[in-house]
Write a structure and sequence with these properties.
Length: 106
């Protein structure tokens, strides 16, 4: 797992992915998920993909999959939220550099 996302004891998992559409997933029956919260979605293939919440409703959340949804089905996918936002330690070495959605230099 990336050092950008460090799991915490408050991990909450959902197996209620309703839809995968483009880079977005819709998760139903969520509780306590916050805007900008990060986590990962794991499909039946076992590959974790980084997600960030971009919309929250009373019982649903929409998350953007930052590492792509190619081959990711709604059925059989599990989403884990870590109760924190994206964090990344930086130094002066990063000044003027461009990073991708995973925090990797381009």
């Amino acid at each position: 797992m990336s050092k950008i996302i460090e799991p915490t004891p408050g991990v909450v998992s959902y197996s209620t992915v309703r839809e995968v559409k483009g880079p977005l997933i819709v998760i139903e029956r969520t509780r306590g998920v916050a805007y900008n919260e990060v986590g990962e979605v794991i499909g039946p293939d076992g590959m974790p993909r980084m997600v960030q919440v971009i919309e929250v409703g009373s019982d649903y959340a929409v998350a953007q999959v930052l590492t792509g949804t190619l081959g990711l089905p709604a059925i059989g996918s599990t989403v884990k939220f870590y109760g924190r936002t994206l964090r990344m330690p930086v130094t002066e070495d990063l000044l003027g550099r461009v990073l991708d959605g995973k925090g990797q230099p381009r």
